[in-house]
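Issue 218. Parser rejects a valid record. Input:
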Amino acid sequence: MNSFKEIDILSLEESNAFKLIGKDWMLITAGNEKNLNTMTASWGMLGVLWQKNVSCIFVRPQRYTLNFLKNSDYYSLCFFSDKYKKILSYCGTHSGKDIDKISKTGLSVDYDKAPYFKEAKLVLICKKIYTDYIDPSGFKDAAIHSEYENKDYHKVFVGEITKCLEKE
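Output the parser choked on:
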């Protein structure tokens, strides 16, 4: 029931990144087998950069998951069916600094260079290849500044997608 098959990213059937990320959301997870954290995200991108299949994720500096991402070479992106929406909402509104979100939600962790969840329908394992903070001097649309009233600009992570796992 919780088994995955590795597939070529080019054969991915779930290919609408706008729906997967923006509407269905994802869990960004980093750390090791014993010490990890996850957070819900609805901002991100999938595409091609530097002749590599990549993900691009954005994490605010106050998020507990940020230190796990900074200290890990790999991270995972997990996508779920609709029945997990309440769990994703919980993971997005509670900090792993304060509680053990993973045990509270009942999610099961597996590990392949990065922690990921057995309940996901799709998992992308990503190797970090670039990081930086968003530079507000680059905003060409003044309205974007309203996203950052606290000047808490996102840290950007570009990760090469090294493995794509799909639920069997």
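Fixed in the parser; the record now loads. The two ends are 8 Å apart (CA to CA).
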